[in-house]
Write a structure and sequence with these properties.
By secondary structure, this protein is α+β, with helices and mostly antiparallel strands. It contains 15 helices and 17 strands. It folds into 2 domains: 164 residues, Creatine Amidinohydrolase, Chain A, domain 1 (3-Layer(aba) Sandwich), CATH 3.40.350.10; 291 residues, Creatinase/methionine aminopeptidase superfamily (Creatine Amidinohydrolase), CATH 3.90.230.10. The strands form 5 sheets. It has a 6-stranded mixed β-sheet, covered by helices on one side. Strands 7-10-11 form a 3-stranded antiparallel β-sheet. It has a 3-stranded antiparallel β-sheet with strand order 8-9-12, covered by helices on one side. Bound molecules: glycine and manganese (II) ion.
């Protein structure tokens, strides 16, 4: 984006293509096959002519880094020859949208072998005589939605394969290259700084959306980040217990109240890549004793996990470590009681942390690849929401986001459930029913011998209080 923003080298995408081809070649895929992807299309608001601001489809972004809609991309498996196909734009585009750039412009910008028009796809492919077109068809394990394989008039003239590409391309995205890690590090720095700006702005009487506005201003003004990686979650008091608060039905529209906690889960997006950071702190800048107790319980869980993370560690074990840490601390605080064995066997921590410990992150905030073939979800409370069930490997980027929440929809039935109510302490719990929730979320890169925390925000109680009081 210019100025001091990160300059993304196009070699990052060339390296992604090489990585994919190496994986396909290792699987003995016929070198005459051609990988064929369709980029995202521009979309209008319902029946109007108002165009949404375009965001590229993530697999296409990964391989080509193209920011315009309506492109296709082809890569020959044996040679690596890469061709982009661009839309042939009508003349009036030049009046309303700007100069119509020729293919050579996109060839220079995206550093590919050739750029042609989409109406040349069929003749170009026919000349390549592909053994098969490898098309993208796979299920996203978070949403359950299917990717959309490339489609174009005349595709029926070619042999197609829908099985080979998706698992290999997902696997490429799971392990970040050095260039991707550097980009993610920079986006995290921009988002971390924005979180600090919000902390400095925070004051009783302001509105939740004004905190969101401060975050948006900071990431765009300092980092050229035109998009966030997801809708900002800026919840004060009880709203902080709503895991995905901030949607249009609950648009961060409560006033910030002296004495309440505030939860800010916001991440910047740049060149399609995400960050995902959560900070929790008191609106007035000074923790009360109960706020500090809950906060430090969550921080303990976050830090215990990051200390234990390294290649070879199963991610579900890290979820269990976080949950056990939280249970121990909730017991010390006096909110739950009973033996640790019974508390864990009855899944009591899941009443307070109903979500998973963390998820892969990269081009998407919830990046794919958490459950490849052969890895299955553990169907137990809490951990069934974990978005990745696999063993940690070098180059993975995963969020560490334990939390403790006081959610009526969970606690009311639990208190009425005789098989577990004896493990709760109602007279203590009642003081926390309007507390909301605390989440502490970092983005972490798994390194060859441990983990690197990409997120740099005030985390200890002392650090937060110092920053909120002007340090
Ligand atoms: N930051 C929102 C989420 O991870 O779901
Ligand atoms: Mn997250």
């Amino acid at each position: 984006m210019g100025q001091d923003t990160f300059r993304v080298p196009m070699s990052m995408h060339a390296d992604s293509r090489t990585k994919l081809l190496q994986r396909l070649q290792a699987k003995n895929v016929d070198p005459g096959c051609v990988v064929m992807l369709q980029g995202g299309a521009s979309r209008m608001k319902y029946d109007t002519d108002r165009e949404f601001l375009f965001e590229q489809e993530s697999f296409f972004q990964y391989l080509f880094g193209v920011k315009e809609p309506g492109f296709y991309g082809a890569i020959q498996v044996g040679t690596g020859k890469t061709i982009l196909f661009m839309p042939r734009l009508p003349e009036e585009w030049g009046v309303w949208m700007g100069r119509i750039q020729p293919p050579g412009h996109f060839q220079d910008t995206y550093e590919v072998d050739e750029v042609l028009f989409t109406d040349e796809i069929v003749s170009t492919l026919a000349a390549m005589k592909p053994a098969s077109l490898l098309l993208l068809l796979g299920k996203n394990s978070d949403s359950g939605a299917m990717s959309i394989p490339a489609q174009f008039p005349g595709i029926e003239n070619f042999k197609t394969n829908f099985d080979i590409l998706s698992p290999e391309l997902v696997e490429c995205r799971v392990h970040k290259s050095d260039a991707e890690a550097q980009l993610l590090r920079w986006i995290n720095e921009i988002a971390s700084n924005a979180h600090v700006q919000v902390m400095r702005k925070m004051a009783p009487g302001l509105m939740e959306y004004q905190m969101e506005a401060e975050f948006l201003h900071s990431i765009y003004e300092r980092g050229g980040c035109r998009f966030t990686a997801y809708t900002c979650i800026c919840g004060c008091g009880p709203n902080s217990a709503t895991l995905h608060y901030g949607h249009q039905g609950a648009p961060n529209d409560r006033q910030l109240t002296d004495g309440n906690m505030f939860l800010n889960d916001s991440g910047a997006q740049y060149h399609g890549y995400a960050s995902d950071i959560t900070c929790s702190y008191p609106v007035n800048g000074k923790f009360t004793a109960p706020q500090k107790d809950i906060y430090e319980a969550v921080l303990d869980a976050n830090r215990a996990v990051q200390k234990a993370m390294k290649p070879g560690i199963p991610w579900p074990d890290m979820h269990r470590l976080a949950v056990r840490t939280i249970a121990e601390r909730l017991k010390e605080i006096g909110i739950i009681r009973g033996s640790m064995d019974e508390l864990l066997a009855m899944h009591i921590p899941a009443l307070f942390m109903p979500h998973g410990l963390g998820h892969f992150m990269g081009l998407d905030v919830h990046d794919p690849g958490g459950y490849p073939e052969g890895v299955s979800r553990i169907d137990e409370p809490g951990i069934r929401s974990l978005r990745a069930g696999r063993v940690l490997e070098t180059g993975m980027v995963i969020t560490v986001e334990p939390g403790i929440y006081f959610i009526d929809a969970i606690l009311d039935p639990a208190l009425a459930n005789r098989s577990i109510s004896h493990l709760l302490v109602p007279e203590k719990l009642k003081h926390f029913r309007r507390f909301g929730g605390i989440r502490i979320e970092d983005d972490v890169l798994v390194t060859s011998n441990g983990a690197e925390n990409l997120t740099r925000v005030p985390r200890t109680v002392a650090e937060i209080e110092a920053v909120m009081n002007g340090s």
